[in-house]
Amino acid sequence: MTQTVIRKMTANEETLGFQTEVKQLLHLMVHSLYSNREIFLRELISNANDACDKLRFLALDAPDLMEADAEMSVRISVDPESKELVISDNGIGMTRDDVISNLGTIAKSGTAEFIKNLSGDSKQDANLIGQFGVGFYSAFIVADRVVVRTRRAGNDAADAVEWSSDGDGQYTIKTIEKAERGTEIRLTLKEDASEFGETYRIRHLVTKYSDHVSIPVYLKNDVEKDDESEAKSEWDQVNQATALWTRPRTEITDEEYTEFYKHVAHDFEDPMTWSHHKVEGKSEYTGLLYVPARAPYDLWNRESPRGLKLYVQRVFIMDRAEEFLPLYLRFIRGVVDSSDLSLNVSREILQKDARVEAMKSAVTRRALDMLAKLAKDDSEKYQKFWEMFGECLKEGPAEDHQNKERITKLLRFASTHASTPAQNVGVEDYIARMVDGQKDIYYLVAESHTNALGSPYLEAFKKRGIEVLVLSDRIDEWLMGHLQEYKDHQFVDVTRDGLELPGEGKDEKKEQKKESKEHKALIKRMKEALTEQVEDVKPSVRLTDSAAVLVLTEHDMGPQMRQIMEAAGQAMPVSKPILEINTDHSLLMRLESEADEGRFKELARLVFDHAQLGAEGKLDDAPGYLKRVNALLTELSV
Ligand code: ADP
């Protein structure tokens, strides 16, 4: 945040250096946004609009702030001769301190990190910078000099500030007189940006980008320079100036929705989808929700601002009110406009108000419906959505019990029935493909997708043609702990004890009992040999190729979850698994006939080691394992 004073000219005039991040961002922006440069106008009008919103809000309690000028507006004038473009508003304005921190630093958290990730490839960076939001600094894409004159509403005319910079690393700030409150931004256009000095061009851009801005945007007509009176008729209103969300859905075009999104979200890219709804009845509100096409740079930063722009009866109240959506939907942007809340609602009140709670559950439902619609109408787009935001949605079942079924339907998994590791199978697809007699939804959590596919646990499923969902994201075991069921289907972990497969009749049960009896001696010996490692040894019904697998009882913690807890410094109770053996496997047959107890023990341990590798992808005793395998190999070669 440091800005160094470079020169102090007089008591009130000084030159300061931009914060390092600003310098870097300015440089990158000017280069990577060149082909997109007209967006600077949208950014500056957006800021002007926000400044007016803020003033209107503060004036609710302090009407004097409005001075004698209550009609909020943005005014734009161009001078093709001097190549100047001036954008002014009569909003809240800024004090000297505001100017220094707002126009000399970037307050967003993670900025340095973000800048480090820019590649230098202008096309890629343009998208990233778009996500980040360029705001005021985008003026320097088209201007080689920017002068901001501003007075905070309520301050004396003599207590205004002028900020000026060539965008080259420093700016000068001084105290000036300014009669009207608010902010005026004067751009001296670059040689190659003279098109933005033409009225027709600006008119076109305002209509294109800022039609939905809720206050009037006036453009100064081209009139003779020495015209004496600056009559009001010189100013043309260019935009519609009605808040977009208050208009009927049928009258709003996709382009208008898209532009409004870019304004709300400070995003360059079109949104993926949106939902616009008016709710009447017990609580009345309008919501306009958007799903961005790309995850913001700070999606995984828990402290990042999130939430919707809140309005009450069309009056702007606050940006990013987080009380209207759960955390797992933090990527959703947009607006809520309530008819019921009080105009002087504060964040503290929002957190306690029962009406807000009711709106939150209604807005959440709308958001989930919007996603369900996207999944139904356009599975390809939904897949893109899933790649961006799927991991957020996976937090849903734990956070939002009420909507668990709806969220579960939106989840996508990798599966043994797909040829790629892409997560593109939903529970409904899975259920539609169930085999005769199948009721449960089977899943396997593994370290990686490749590990999972080779897993011995899947053998019995492959044999029977039963699909298994394959989960390998870090969050997955935790997620499955919260899922349990969908409609009347249980989620069943294929690595657990007591697995009963569809089509598995009494015969198999009998077979298993018979095997237990037949191999009683082997089982007993193995139990003794592995008493430290396993809880029990049982004949398996699930194995065809492998010698043995480890299974957990229903209540044991899985290896992924255990690792997470242990990494977090939690000591976990040791629970021993059950070893299921394939008595038809040659290794087990060999064991059965092994008379030497020492050898038996070594081989039994080897069977356990292999089962552990299959289950966890690693061994408790790797050196011991190597020794045992070496001994075996030596034996084979003599
Ligand atoms: P952002 O709008 O994303 O916060 P900007 O770089 O566009 O970032 O602006 C930084 C800050 O400068 C704004 O948050 C606002 O406080 C202030 N600001 C910019 N333009 C104006 C304006 N026209 N009137 C009052 N304040 C402004």
Provide a descriptive summary of the structure in words.
The chain has 638 residues and is an alpha+beta fold. The chain folds into four domains: 235 residues, Heat Shock Protein 90, CATH 3.30.565.10; 133 residues, Ribosomal Protein S5, domain 2 (2-Layer Sandwich), CATH 3.30.230.80; 82 residues, 3-Layer(aba) Sandwich (Rossmann fold); 120 residues, Heat shock protein 90, C-terminal domain (Four Helix Bundle (Hemerythrin (Met), subunit A), Up-down Bundle), CATH 1.20.120. It contains 23 helices and 23 strands. The strands form four sheets. It has a ten-stranded mixed beta sheet with strand order 1-2-7-6-5-8-4-3-9-10. Helix 2 crosses helix 7 and helix 10 runs antiparallel to helix 11. It is elongated, with a radius of gyration of 33 Å. The termini are far apart. The model has no long low-confidence stretch (mean pLDDT 89).
Helix content: 25-40%
What's the number of helices?
23
Percentage beta strand: 15-25%
**What would you call the structural class?**
alpha+beta
Biggest beta sheet attributes? 10 strands, mixed
Number of strands: 23
- What low-confidence regions span 5 or more consecutive residues with pLDDT below 50? none
Q: How many structural domains does the protein architecture include? A: 4
Name the strands of the widest sheet in spatial order: 1-2-7-6-5-8-4-3-9-10
Termini Cα gap: 73 Å
Rounded average pLDDT: 89
Examine the coordinates and then state which fold CATH places here, giving the name of the CATH topology of the largest domain. Answer: Heat Shock Protein 90
Give the name of the CATH superfamily of the largest domain: Histidine kinase-like ATPase, C-terminal domain
CATH class of the largest domain: Alpha Beta
